[in-house]
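Work Package 4 report. The design task specified in the project plan requires that, given a folded chain encoded as structure tokens, an amino acid be chosen for each position. We show below one input record used in the internal validation round.
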């Protein structure tokens, strides 16, 4: 009987881990976009996990690849803003699990 219970518990744990992984894949990231006093703070939301970009500022001495990734997310090849910039924090997005990161631009 213990072997059946152990096998059942292993399946339950595996299913739980799989559901967490799937949930993470479907999560969104809320970006707080700080332009260091050059403009008001704005926000945008993207599907996916962008936690690796937290606290990365364009024009800083930090990882240039991450800076380029931020630019590619925000702007298209013509330099037009590619995302919907929001003036208010997207509270509705917080009703579902999501990530929140701060990125910005140093003048």
């Amino acid at each position: 009987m213990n072997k059946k219970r152990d096998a059942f518990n292993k399946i339950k744990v595996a299913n739980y881990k799989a559901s967490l992984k799937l949930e993470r894949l479907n999560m969104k990231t809320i970006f707080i976009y700080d332009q260091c006093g050059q403009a008001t703070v704005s926000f945008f939301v993207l599907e996916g996990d962008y936690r690796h970009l937290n606290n990365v500022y364009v024009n800083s001495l930090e990882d240039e690849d991450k800076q380029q990734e931020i630019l590619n997310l925000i702007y298209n090849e013509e330099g037009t803003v590619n995302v919907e910039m929001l003036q208010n924090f997207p509270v509705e997005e917080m009703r579902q699990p999501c990530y929140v990161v701060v990125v910005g631009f140093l003048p």
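DSSP finds two helices and four strands in the chain. Validation will be extended to a larger panel in the next phase.
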